[in-house]
Amino acid sequence: MVKGPGFYSDIGKKARDLLYKDYQSDHKFTLTTYTASGIAITSTGTRKGEVFLADVNTQLKSKNITTDVKVDTSSNVHTTITVDEPAPGLKAIVRFIVPDQRSGKVELQYQHEYAGISTSIGMTTSPIVNFSGVVGNDALSIGTDLAYDTASGNFTKYDAGLNFVHSDLIASLTLNNKGDTLKASYYHTVSPLTNTAVGAELSHVFSNNENTFTIGTQHALDPLTSVKARVNNYGLASALIQHDWTPKTRFTLSGEVDTRAIDKSAKVGIALALKP
After folding, report:
1. CA torsion through residues 111, 117, 122, 123, sign
2. Residue 214, exposed/middle/buried by CB under 10 A (0-12, 13-18, 19+)?
3. In Å, what is the CA distance from 131 to each residue of 147, 179, 264?
């Protein structure tokens, strides 16, 4: 794997994962099986309130080419073809949805010791062109994320970010939503042995002068069980526990309560992922 600054999406990712990943209020079940020829078939069912959503994903790997085909509840067929390392540091990805004729997209990713670049273009007559790039190293990097609509001739997205990585901490600063949202995040590893860490994120929206502050922590109770918790300045407190019954089977129980309205029912989410 190439060492370096990574991609733009990696800026602040550690803090985002600690504060938001795996928290949910839905009920989700995932089952993955494998055929004799090595094809992975993953079936997922999700209950969101009174709505039940399901999809089936098939993944086939052949040398450096991975093909994913997913059929969702609306009978849409999502196809992703990934070619890994056609050249050193390069990855090519083709995505399209049937029957959406405007969904096709071609993406190229390139990782270097001092740069990470991702660019994509829609397969239409007037496509949207996306470009993101990061320069620096594994300690300090700066990047931008742009989207240009060739039909209107306007930039629909222009974000920028800065990432600083030390031995046990990561600090990030991003300017998103066309300069309207400023986010600062912090991730600190307290104990690598128990995967104990703390993280925080401060967000300010200039258009309405709104501030959001979220702080959270994670800790491994044992090699198979971990817990996480977070709270924000609006009084929303969340917690989750994850337990791996086997190396490939994980159970997650999460909950959220509004501490400013204790009389309201808490939101509870359950996720179970099974692999043979």
Report:
1. negative
2. buried
3. 6, 17, 44
Largest CA distance in the chain: 59
Q: What is the DSSP letter of 99?
A: S
Which uninterrupted H or E stretch holds 17? helix 13-20
pLDDT digits (tens, 9 = 90+) for 120-164: 999 998 999 999 999 999 899 999 999 999 999 999 999 999 999
- Distance from C-alpha of 196 to C-alpha of 190, rounded to nearest angstrom: 5
Are 76 and 97 a contacting pair, CB within 8 Å?
Answer: yes
**Overall residue count recorded for the chain in this entry:** 276
Can you spell out the DSSP letters for 166-202? -SSEEEEEEEETTTTEEEEEEEEEEEGGGTEEEEEEE
Peptide bond into 127 cis (omega under 30): no
What residues contact residue 226 under an 8 Å CB cut-off, 6+ apart?
195, 218, 219, 220, 241, 242
Rounded to whole angstroms, the Cα distance separating 264 from 259 reads: 9
Does the pTM surpass 0.85? The reply is yes
- Average per-residue pLDDT in the chain? 94
Q: What is the distance between the alpha carbons of residues 216 and 200, in angstroms, rounded to a whole number?
A: 6
Side chain identity at residue 239, one-letter code = A
Contacts of 263 (CB under 8 A, 6+ apart): none
Task: Indicate the helix (H) or strand (E) that contains 13.
Answer: helix 13-20
Selection from 28, 56, 46 nearest residue 272 by Cα: 28
| Type of residue numbered 8 | Y
Coil vs helix vs strand at 14: helix
Strand pairing report for 267-274 and 27-34: parallel
